[in-house]
Structures are given as C-alpha cells and as structure tokens.
From TrEMBL:
Protein name: DUF190 domain-containing protein
Pfam families assigned: DUF190
Organism: Dongia soli
Gene3D superfamilies membership: 3.30.70.120
Domain of life: Bacteria
Family recorded in the similarity comment: Belongs to the UPF0166 family.
InterPro entries per UniProt: N-reg_PII-like_a/b (IPR011322), N-reg_PII/ATP_PRibTrfase_C (IPR015867), UPF0166 (IPR003793)
C-alpha cells in the first residue's frame, strides 16, 4: 500500500467510556478503518482534557476519572477518508472530528516517499 505525499489526518476525539455495540468506540473505529484498508490508525489515551461539556477529565490520583480523553488518528488520502466518514457517523455519538492535511515523509519499510528534512 502506498500513501500520497500530500495526505490527510482524521482526528476523532471522545471519551474512553464511549461505546459501539458494547465494545469501546476506539476499537470499533480502528477495526472499521482496517476493514476498509485505510493506511493506518492509532489510538491515544490522554491524561487530561475537556470537551463540549467543559467537564474536566483527569488521571490525577485525587480526581481519578473513569472517562479519560481518547484520540484516534487515521492517515490516508482525502478520497479514502471521505469514504470512511459515513461509517464513522453511524457509530459515533458525541465527540469532535477534525480533518487536516499532512505531508507524508515515510510510510512502511524501504525508501521514504519524500526526502526527510535536514536537521536545523
């Protein structure tokens, strides 16, 4: 699989308690992305954050939250991500979804798709 040098990054923000058919939402998102042969997806769990409700979610011991922030990032072409968005809409409740351009410098083993920038 190859990735265009000018690709897109889809970021999906929600809480770790969010579910899809009884499973964690992040799992449903990653499995659907894999099923649709997207280039890759990664789940990040945040130690602290807040969203639309302004309710603070934190991993501090004295304020232990069971609903820490989760971000799923998916990188691929605009066309493939546009095809993924309707599936995402079906399985997501609340949350934030963003899409922004990224420059792919390396993907997978072998030679990089673009010259890596020289260190400053």
């Amino acid at each position: 699989m190859t990735l265009p040098q000018q690709a897109m990054r889809l970021r999906i923000y929600f809480g770790e308690n969010d579910r899809c058919d009884g499973s964690p939402l992040y799992e449903a998102i990653v499995l659907k992305a894999r099923e649709l042969h997207l280039a890759g997806a990664t789940v990040f769990r945040g130690p602290m954050g807040f969203g639309h409700s302004s309710r603070l979610h934190t991993a501090k011991i004295m304020r232990l939250s069971e609903d820490l922030p989760v971000v799923v990032e998916v990188i691929d072409s605009r066309e493939k991500l546009d095809g993924f968005l309707p599936h995402l809409q079906k399985i997501m409740g609340s949350g934030l979804v963003t899409l922004d351009p990224v420059r792919v410098l390396r993907y997978g083993p072998g030679a990089p798709e673009a010259e890596l920038p020289a260190p400053h």
